[in-house]
Design a protein that fits this description.
This protein is an all-alpha fold. It is built from 13 helices and no strands. The chain has one domain. It is a multi-pass membrane protein.
Length: 343
């Protein structure tokens, strides 16, 4: 009987990890395929994904009493403006970065999430991280530098532009801000991640909407459809699939951390990152040279080392510093592809 219980538990963990990895991979590659094969409509693409996530939250709430959709409260909305603003800005830069770089290079372009999160968290709490944490951040930073260093064995088409790297760094920076703000925002949502997800998606959609019009993307759609006989089905199906998997990715990430340990979640993230690189090489004919391969390896090693540090038993309360900045840092990989951003 005990053996059966162990087998069932192991099966549940394996199923959740597989669900998480599949959702993350599909999310990235469908996003990339749509951005590659559709007109330049990144903000409209992102807006539809946010709206689909909100709709799916309401549908889920209709079928499950455990999912509670919050009532609109103006006071709560004002308190959540910082986290929503940081979320949508990070999402925009994330989308622009993915649009402009190869799928296999995306992890490198956003490789500074962990170091920047440690810096932002330390500044927020006005404390200094431990030497081992600084070492982990340094390792990841070295990996990023190796990945973005000029390489003669890459064709010009595979070399990312300075602007795309800038998008990646800004995306990493705003993810770092978001990670810190989540902790202070949860109390305004009754400490419910589902309620915070609803507020974040609704607020992000509202903030993004005027910029979609300012950027003129609705008029681009009309011109393409009526004047150029645009086949909109790739864009529509891609938006629907990524919206659904963005929602599923949130659920998968939460389940992964719930039924496994943080370090197991990190290793599944690392395995997914390797698969993402290999699939990018196969599906999009991305070029993986020695520099990029070494960069990805170093970033993964540094991030996993940090996660191992965080998984160690905590020191007694008397020996711990107050407002430890490391406590605010998420235990997920810096290369997570919007699981904390989309939903």
């Amino acid at each position: 009987m005990a053996a059966l219980a162990i087998d069932v538990n192991q099966l549940k963990v394996a199923a959740v990890v597989a669900f998480y990895m599949c959702s993350a991979l599909i999310m990235v590659f469908v996003n990339k395929a749509v951005l590659n094969n559709s007109p330049d409509l990144p903000l409209l693409f992102l807006l539809f994904q946010l709206l689909i996530a909100v709709i799916l939250l309401h549908v889920s709430a209709a079928f499950s009493s455990k999912i509670e959709i919050p009532k609109f409260d103006k006071a709560v909305a004002k308190k959540l403006i910082p986290v929503v603003t940081v979320n949508i800005v990070g999402l925009v830069f994330n989308t622009l970065c993915l649009r402009d770089v190869e799928a296999s290079f995306f992890q490198i372009a956003r490789g500074l999430v962990l170091p920047l999160t440690i810096v932002v968290s330390s500044a927020h709490t006005r404390t200094t991280p431990g030497k081992k944490v600084v070492f982990a951040a340094a390792v990841v930073t070295v990996g990023f530098m190796i990945g973005v260093a000029p390489s003669k064995d890459l064709p010009k088409s595979s070399i990312p532009s300075t602007l795309s790297l800038f998008y990646g760094v800004l995306s990493s920076l705003f993810i770092a801000f978001h990670a810190v703000l989540i902790k202070s925002s949860l109390p305004h949502c009754n400490n419910s991640t589902i309620q915070l997800a609803w507020w974040t998606n609704v607020g992000s959609a509202v903030m993004l909407f005027p910029f979609v019009w300012i950027h003129g993307e609705p008029w681009k759609v009309l011109d393409l459809y009526f004047l150029e006989n645009w086949d909109w089905r790739v864009f529509a199906w891609g938006t629907l699939v990524t919206g659904v998997f963005g929602f599923l990715l949130c659920v998968a990430g939460l389940l992964s951390i719930k039924v496994t340990s943080p370090i197991t979640h990190m290793f599944s993230s690392a395995a997914r990152s390797v698969l993402q690189t290999l699939i990018g090489v196969w599906a999009f004919k991305d070029i993986l040279n020695v520099n990029r391969g070494l960069s990805i390896l170093i970033i993964l090693v540094g991030t996993m080392y940090y996660t191992w540090l965080k998984s160690q038993p905590a020191s007694p309360p008397s020996n711990r510093r107050e407002n430890d900045p490391e406590a605010a840092i998420p235990l997920t990989s810096g290369s997570e592809d919007q699981e904390k951003e989309k939903v």
